[in-house]
What does this fold into?
Amino acid sequence: MNSLLPQEIQLQATASDSISSQYAAGFFDGEGCVELREVISNYRYLEVRVRVRMTNTNQEVLERIKARFGGWLSRIKPPTKNSKAPWTLTIGAREVETFLRAVAPYVIVKRAQLALALGYIEFKRLTRNPGGSKSSEVLEFEQLAVSKMRELNRRGVAAPVNGGG
It folds into this structure.
């Protein structure tokens, strides 16, 4: 019987560029975050944008996620003699909704952030007013959404789940 050498097995395992939604969800749960960011738009007004970021020292896995879902990859700091260089994949604009919807059924840790981001995307779609100003209600909702996302993303000790402690 012809057995595969470990090198051949490794080459077969890395030959595919395809990343499943389940894998991407797990990676995102452990290494990512979803943000609502306030930015000044090209038209000089404050706009809230949704983006996903995932950071890791393994560039290959981030490249594969990027190949499936889009985004851009950047090195956030150079390597040192004691550590590898971390890379960040950022998914924004039109691609972020596709990514969030693909991983939504499988996300566990960041479920609340994901739901808030998708809810905000839908709200933005329903209240779009091209060329017009935003109502006070829209501005208030945006501020509440940004504050809630910051709260959900805050580092530190998590609140007990289901009243446990």
Observations:
- Residues 136-153 form the longest helix (18 residues).
